[in-house]
Amino acid sequence: MNTRSLLQKVCLILMIGTALAGCSKGDDDTLNNYASSNDLYVNSNNIIKSMSGVYSGQWTLNGKNVDAEQNNYYFSLGVDRIYSFDFTTFPFKAIAMHALSQYLSSYSSFSITKLTTSMIIGAPLKDEDLLLFKTGLIGDLSSLENAKEDFSTHIGIVTDIYCVGYSENLVYFELSPYTNYAFLRYPFVVTLSNGEYYAIVMDVVPSKSTLTLDSSSRTINFVCNIPQIEIYDSEGNKTIIEPKPELVLTFTSTNKTKAAENGN
Asked: At a CB cut-off of 8 Å and minimum separation 6, what does 45 contact?
């Protein structure tokens, strides 16, 4: 073997060694980045599971403290197969008062005497129940056989939420949208002291409605954006109210009152 041939082989071996060293370093970096990301992912799941449950706390509407109905609690997450948020506790009356004050000139003369947020399946529908049922339909509401269900409407059920980010101590969620719908619709019915009743539908923007879990302070924070509210009278006639500024509901927990049960 001549000197030139030997030098060529040595150079080739050095080049291969350098390339392998570079690849090895890159692989280590990739594995380290994956491991770090995976640790955060596992940690975020642990945060969700440990913090799911029922919380007491403070609701605000455009920065002002308001009370919630159906017990002043907030149910954070279900973690069995999907993450979810329960709207059965909410400042229903505060929302209704805000909307009706812009809808009825004489509203200040009346008070809310009854709140209908869900229906008993299989039982005869009362007037308020029927109006609540109709708000979940689209089409000709005067002839129910020609109407169909509006799948963006949620009545007495939980809303799916999905994780949009996490860090060492925080997990961020947004409400899951329904395909081809700009809003998620949350209806309830209020009955006034004069006997009149109205359906109030909160049109919630999913991408602007967020839930944050903070494992360092063991608190949760919910922000709900409501740019418009639908009002239906007893005949099913609809009026849309667009509050200025938009309504922003928030909930900040003060105490965890009950842990999740059976994965929920």
From this structure: none
Q: Residue 153 gets which letter from DSSP?
A: B
Structure tokens at 99: 């909307």
CA nearest to 249, candidates 66, 125, 110, 118: 66
H or E stretch including 131?
helix 127-134
- pLDDT band with cut points at 50, 70 and 90 for residue 112: very high
> What global pTM score does this model have?
0.76
**Tokens 């509407």 belong to residue:** 61
Please tell me which residue, 226 or 152, carries the higher pLDDT value: 226
Q: What's the rounded Cα separation, in Å, for the pair 32 and 224?
A: 38
Q: CB-based burial of residue 221 (10 Å sphere; 0-12 exposed, 13-18 middle, 19+ buried)?
A: middle
Residue 81: per-residue pLDDT? 52
How far is Cα 36 from Cα 1, in angstroms, rounded to an integer?
51
